[in-house]
Amino acid sequence: MVKAYTKSLPLPTTCINQMKRTMQNPSYHAEGDVYTHTLMVLENVLKLDESWGLTEKEREILYWTALLHDIGKPKTTKWENGRYHSHGHESAGVPIARNILLQRPELSPEQRRTILDLIRWHSIPLQYGIRKNPVSAYIPIALQVDLRLLGIFAYCDLTGRICKNQQQVWDLTSHFKEEILPNVIARIGTFRSLQEKYREADLLHKNSLWQASQFRDSRLLEKLLAEPVMETENSRLPNTCIIPVGSSAKSIQPHLDARYSKALRIEISKKDRSYLHNAIFKRIAPQEVLLFEGDFTDESLRRELIDILRMEQMKVKILYFEDQLEELLAGITDPISYTEIRRRYANQGQIHPWEAHEIEFINTSIQ
User: 265 phi and psi, to 5 degrees?
Assistant: First the structure.
């Protein structure tokens, strides 16, 4: 229950102290430090009444989102040109928040991922609203995060501060809830229906949906989503391509060795970019399982590889390893390995739910 968490914040003392020391631009956060703002947002979340139609699980999601949405600010805040900036705090906060959430067994994996998605995109209603972005600009975001929960959290976040443009913030929050959200849902459906549509599609349809999601113009995506899902004939069974995304070979390799001992292993690194296509398709037999090895916390490398595999009509499965940083570092004495694990952990952002044909989330500590 959410109310059980309110007496003391369930965060590491180091995080709380860092938040208290991290100041913000007084024009937009006259309340002061990040910790004070977090308490104000949390208070708003706890005051949400029944009219918002929230389930208990959704209230827990919003509670943890409030606690952790600015957890990346201590890492990213800088004093530049006479003011504080925290560019990129949303994505920087994701691995920090994941590490904390993995220590909360009462939260389901689905709740945890929803919280991390909301943290990653929580600035969108304000940023896009100030820029007066059209409804179509929100559609790519709607594929990755539940806009309904994002809108509710935006209300709590943007009214949980003292700023010089309070009326503008209120107007933007209302506009997102009353104009943007209903229009997006009318055009492409709810977040849950979008993910169900993708899961039900066959390999070729999934490829088409993914490609359409990358375009700035959303009309093709809307057209594909409006069409009924139909099975297509494919004369050959596709190769299955396994792409592990994780921070430590120590936790990944035993799992891969147990499940994919007979797979063809192909090592991919950043230097392979110039001949990536040839590096993959040298000696592949039909229906063979391919296991790729490399640093696929590097999103650009991972996306480039996936685009090539999709183009060749291969099935792509991502194994996404979720582990606490402390567990990954346990027993590591080599400074280079220690630094590399921390670097990868910091780079391990959120996976787009349509990025692969299938995504499996794995926590090796509970295997």
Answer: -90, 130
pLDDT band of residue 5 (cuts 50, 70, 90) is very low
Residue 241 Cα distances to 98, 275, 306, 317, angstroms: 26, 18, 9, 6
- Report d(CA 351, CA 359) in Å as an integer: 9
227 backbone φψ class: left, alpha, beta (φ>0; ψ -120 to 50): beta
Dihedral pair phi/psi, residue 290, rounded to 5°? -110, 130
pLDDT digits (tens, 9 = 90+) for 120-155: 999 999 999 999 999 999 999 999 999 999 999 999
Q: Is the pLDDT of residue 264 over 70?
A: yes
Nearest to 212 by CA among 198, 222, 199, 227: 222
Work out the pLDDT band at 81, boundaries 50, 70, 90: confident
Q: Where are the chain's structural domains?
A: 2-193, 240-366
Output Rg (C-alpha) for the chain, integer angstroms.
22
**In this structure, are residues 348 and 95 in contact, taking their beta carbons and an 8 Å threshold?**
yes
Name every residue whose Cβ is closer than 8 Å to that of residue 246 and which is 6 or more positions away in sequence.
Answer: 252, 297, 319, 320, 321, 323, 344, 348
Q: Looking at domain 240-366, which CATH architecture does it have? A: 3-Layer(aba) Sandwich (3.40)
SS3 label, residue 359: strand
